Amino acid sequence: MLHMERTKRAAGKKAERSGNWILLDFGQFSMPARLFDTRIAAAFYNKLPLSIELIAWGNELYGAIGDDLGSENPQEQIPAGGLAYTNRGNYFCIFFGQTPAWPVEYIGSIDGEGWKRLLKQPCNKVTILPQPIECTTIPHEKGAAFPVDDEGKGGMKRRVEKR
């Protein structure tokens, strides 16, 4: 597992971020995201890779993942760029301005402001992949994100947890 500095999220009960990076691949573009250090986020990460058919509801995309991951600490508000799960329908949700219809599990967030692209470009499917590296968003011709090194050049940087 990757070693990451721990930061606090703004909504609801404070949670720490884990080193579990994921890649949200929408076909024409992709964006990295980081999952929080919660039981539900870990259960979600352990199901990857997933391909999810998405439904738009206002400024939210959601789709069924097929399994009940349970409930831990549902939140009534999720910030833009937030990733969530609800066991009411077993949905994975991506928020970019919408208030949840009911409290959901806040499991992670899209890195940076890549979520703003979802406001402009409709998406009906996402493939979610585990990423064993820390990602930085740098758009290329099609707008996809890819990992880079500390100097902004192509490549990957890996942080190893000290034991």
Question: Topology of this protein?
Answer:
Blueprint: E1 17-25, E2 30-36, H1 39-47, E3 50-53, E4 55-56, E5 60-64, E6 82-86, E7 91-95, E8 105-110, H2 117-120, E9 125-131
Antiparallel strand pairs: 1-2, 1-9, 2-8, 3-9, 4-5, 5-7, 6-7, 6-8
What do these coordinates show?
This protein is mainly beta. It has a single domain, classed as Cyclophilin, CATH 2.40.100. 8% of the residues lie in helices and 31% in strands. The protein has 2 helices and 9 strands. The chain has a 9-stranded antiparallel β-sheet with strand order 3-9-1-2-8-6-7-5-4, with helices on one face. 33% of the residues are buried.
What key phrases describe this protein's structure?
163 residues; mainly beta; Cyclophilin; 9-stranded antiparallel sheet; 2 helices; 8% helix; globular; disordered N terminus; disordered C terminus
